[in-house]
Amino acid sequence: RSTPKPSSAASDVYKRQEETSSSSSFSSSSSSSSSAFSASDADGASSPAAPLESLLKRHVPDPANGFFGETPSVDDVQTLFPHALDAFQRDATQFLLDGDSVVVSAPTGSGKTLVGETAIVAALARGQKAIYTTPLKALSNQKLREFQAKFGVRRVGLKTGDVDVNAADADVVVMTTEILRNMLYPGAAGAAGSDAADYRLDDVGVVILDEVHYLADANRGTVWEETIIYLPPRIQLLCLSATVGNPDDLAGWIEEVHCATTEARCRTVVSDFRPVPLRWHFSMRPGRMWPGLGPL
Fold first, then answer.
1. Buried b (16+ CB within 10 A) or exposed e, 162-172
2. Whole-model pTM over 0.70
């Protein structure tokens, strides 16, 4: 049975509604796309990544035009942050700019993650990529949002066991440590630290291991250990922790297993300043005899 054709007037109304709907949908899509683009647009005045893009233009190598790169100074990196860097942050940043690996031990809330951000900037300024690892998926998701706000949406990706967001194209990829360890296994069949690792590490200049004290974990510690041993020596390591008890020993071991075939060293940066003080509280059952205290 044939379908009756709409009248001319009804057809015009339908066309106008369709055009309005299409225009509205396109406008909404464009707005969303524009919003995402503005977060990573190098020329957008409102872009949070604009100062970074300006710095990179002055320092990233461009051999086609005869420019082979220039290492930024700590003061150059400082311009990307609204506040002055603390002494331990400046020291760690300088070591990273010099090409060394670094172990940073500083209390919670003191600004360890900022050192991770300066490590990312140092890698990007050399035209390289960065990997930031965490022990938890929830923490990886949090870092993704933080880094997208700082470096731009298009520059940052995420790779966990069940989520992949822009990981193939991003300059900064946040992932769980197990994912990175698995990427290193192809090179593990040869010598430790072999450059035969996953091709996705070819352009990586620095790996940041957050919560590196997981090395001491009875169940998962081998993941961090294997990651450090199998990571190609050309890649810098930045290890962050608030609770690692022997940072000098850890740095010495990293220098032995990771830096032995290079001129780089593994430096230790320790800060004991605690911006968020700890308050100790004790809960004890009343009426009991406590050694040295008597009944309480």
1. eeebbbeebbb
2. yes
